[in-house]
Write a structure and sequence with these properties.
This protein is of the alpha+beta class. It contains 7 helices and 6 strands.
Length: 189
Amino acid sequence: MAELTELRKLLNEFGVRAVELAKSNLQIDRTIDGKRRKRVASGKLRDSLTYRLWKKGKKDVIIFTTNSDETREYADVIEEGRRPNSTPPPIAPILAWIKLKRIRLRNVDSENVMKRSQFKKKASTKKEQKDELLNMARRMSISIGKKGIKGIHYFQEAIDDALDEFDDSIISAVIQDIEKQLKSDKYIK
């Protein structure tokens, strides 16, 4: 059986375009629950997006993934979200995110409402600062476990957009490969 060379070339182009669109989708500011949100902090996820094309039996398979195991699980959470009332996420990545985004602590004084919205002054010692950040990361982890996170479907939207762009090209590539197969068959003259 002849190889599907035209389709394989087109699938490679399709994969490159879908990854390009997914990277762009991650950088878009979105309104989620009435608040503007960015889904890019360090850019590790965005920079690790990729695709792989391989032959599985008689089929060509394309999979969209990341380059590293470190970002793979996180990519799924951003794509699909995290369901409410689930196990809270680990604290270490949240703590790293807090430091990266330079999130400042706020007062949580329940008695004085006016004081509540103010930023808290930095603790006097490094240990107190570290403890406060760790406490904030714990509270965020518990809140994420309780409330969940909405997914943004950045890769699915990118694949759908790329399919719209490549729709006619894929059909013509399949037809070209079928015609090559028919011409190369030794029983047909």
